[in-house]
Write a structure and sequence with these properties.
This protein is mostly helical. It contains 14 helices and four strands. It has helices at 8-26, 34-46, 59-72, 81-89, 132-144, 154-161, 182-195, 203-211, 230-242, 262-271, 291-302, 310-319, 337-349, 366-370, and strands spanning 2-3, 47-48, 358-359, 364-365. Helix 9 packs parallel to helix 11.
Length: 372
C-alpha cells in the first residue's frame, strides 16, 4: 500500500457529481456492485491516493480496511498473503530484554514504518510508537490472511499491555500522554480474544469501567458521563461479549439478569435508524454509512437486528455507494477506505449475496475469526 502522487483519484474527484447523477438516473445504484468494490480496494491496496499522505502514521489501519474488505468480498486471492503477513510482522515492537516488559511501555505493533526508529548501538529501542489500535488492526490482517498465531510473540504483547490499563479499568492506547476511553478497552479485549489469552487485562476492572459508561438513555458514551454514541456503544457491548459478560442473542433470554439495562439500550439503538433508512451515531445527527455497522452490530449481538427496517437501510447504503466502487460517508460523497469497509460490513450483516458472513464482535469475517 504505497502512497501515490498521481492516479485515478483526481479524475474521480472531478467527475464524481456527474457520475453520481447518472448512476441515480439509470438505476445502476439499485444493486451492490461487488466487482467495482473489489477494483476500488485493489486500487487502494496497490497504490494509496496522495490524499492519504496525512494518514501515513495509520497505514496499518488503512491496510486493515483494504485487506479485511477484500476478505469480506471474497477476493483475498488477489493479494500476496505471505507478503502481507511479512509486512505486518515487520511492524512489531520488540523489547530488548525480559525486564522491558514491565517498564511501562507497550510492545505491540506500530501504525506505520515511519513510526519506527532503529535501535541504538546497544540494541535499545529509542522510540516505541506501538499502540493498541494498530495492534488490533495488525492481528485482524494476520487473521484474514491465515497467518499461524502460534508464531506470534504474544507474551510481549499481553504482558506489556497490562501497563496500559488504568486504575478505573480503562485503557490508554500508548504508554504515555494519551486519552483513555472505551475504544481502547475494546482493542484490548479484541487482542486478548484473538490471542486466546486474557492475561493482558483485568476483565473485572474493565467491566466496571464499561458499566459506568452507560448513559441515562441506554446508549454508551466513550467515557463515563459523556453523550451516548454509536461507536462507544459498539465498543461497550462487543467488549462485554468478548469478555464473556453478555450472552449471545441475550434479548431472547432473561433480560432482567443482564448486567446492563437492555430495554433502554435496545430502545436507544432502534431510535438511531432515521427516516432515510440510515443510522445516525448520535441523536439529531445525519445518517452515516459507518453506523450501519456500529449500531447494526450491537443489535446483531443482542439478537435484535430483525427489528430494524432492512430494506430502508439497504436503500440508504446504496445512495452512498459510488459507481467507481467504495462508499462515501453520506449520499453523493466520494468513497473513502473507512466508510467503504464499514459499508461492506453493513451489507454483510444484511446478508448480501456474495459477501462472507461477519463476526460482529470482532469486525471481521467469521472465517477469519474462527481461523478457517
Amino acid at each position: 500500500m504505497e502512497p501515490a502522487t498521481e492516479n485515478e483519484w483526481d479524475r474521480l474527484s472531478s467527475s464524481s457529481s456527474d457520475g453520481e447523477e447518472q448512476a441515480a438516473s439509470d438505476g445502476s445504484s439499485s444493486q451492490f456492485n461487488r466487482q467495482q468494490h473489489v477494483a476500488f480496494l485493489m486500487m487502494m491496496y496497490e497504490s494509496l491516493p496522495h490524499h492519504y499522505q496525512y494518514q501515513e502514521i495509520n497505514r496499518i489501519t488503512l491496510a486493515h480496511f483494504a485487506i479485511s474488505g477484500l476478505c469480506l468480498l471474497g477476493a483475498l486471492d488477489r493479494v500476496d498473503k505471505d507478503a502481507v503477513s511479512d509486512w505486518v510482522l515487520s511492524l512489531k515492537a520488540h523489547p530488548s530484554n525480559k525486564a522491558d516488559l514491565t517498564n511501562g511501555e507497550f510492545y505491540g505493533f506500530h501504525g506505520s514504518p515511519s513510526s519506527q526508529l532503529h535501535p541504538d548501538d546497544n540494541g535499545v529501542l529509542m522510540h516505541n510508537g506501538s499502540n493498541l489500535a494498530s495492534t488490533y488492526c495488525a492481528l485482524a490482517i494476520l487473521k484474514a490472511v491465515g497467518y499461524n498465531f502460534a508464531n506470534i510473540d504474544s507474551k510481549s504483547i499481553l504482558t506489556s499491555m497490562r501497563n496500559l490499563q488504568q486504575h478505573d479499568g480503562s485503557f490508554m492506547p500508548i504508554h504515555f500522554g494519551a486519552e483513555k476511553d472505551l475504544r481502547f478497552v475494546y482493542c484490548a479485549a479484541a487482542i486478548c480474544f484473538l490471542l486466546e489469552d486474557w492475561s493482558g487485562m483485568d476483565r473485572e476492572r474493565a467491566k466496571a469501567y464499561i458499566l459506568n459508561c452507560q448513559s441515562y438513555d441506554g446508549g454508551f458514551g466513550l467515557t463515563p458521563g459523556s453523550e451516548s454514541h454509536g461507536g462507544g456503544t459498539y465498543c461497550a457491548v462487543a467488549s462485554l461479549r468478548l469478555m464473556g459478560f453478555i450472552e449471545d442473542n441475550v434479548l431472547s433470554k432473561n433480560m432482567s439478569s443482564s448486567i446492563i439495562d437492555l430495554p433502554l439500550l435496545l430502545s436507544w439503538c432502534l431510535q438511531r435508524q432515521a427516516a432515510d433508512g440510515g443510522f445516525q451515531g448520535r441523536a439529531n445527527k445525519p445518517s452515516d454509512t459507518c453506523y450501519a455497522f456500529w449500531i447494526g452490530s450491537v443489535l446483531r449481538m443482542l439478537g435484535g437486528y430483525n427489528l430494524i427496517d432492512k430494506e430502508a437501510l439497504r436503500g440508504f447504503l446504496l445512495t452512498c455507494q459510488s459507481q467507481y466502487g467504495g462508499f462515501g460517508k453520506c449520499p453523493g460523497d466520494l468513497p473513502d477506505l473507512y466508510h467503504s469497509f464499514y459499508g461492506y460490513t453493513a451489507f454483510s450483516l444484511l446478508e448480501e449475496p456474495g459477501l462472507n458472513p461477519l463476526c460482529a464482535e470482532l469486525g471481521m469475517t467469521e472465517f477469519s475469526a474462527l481461523g478457517i
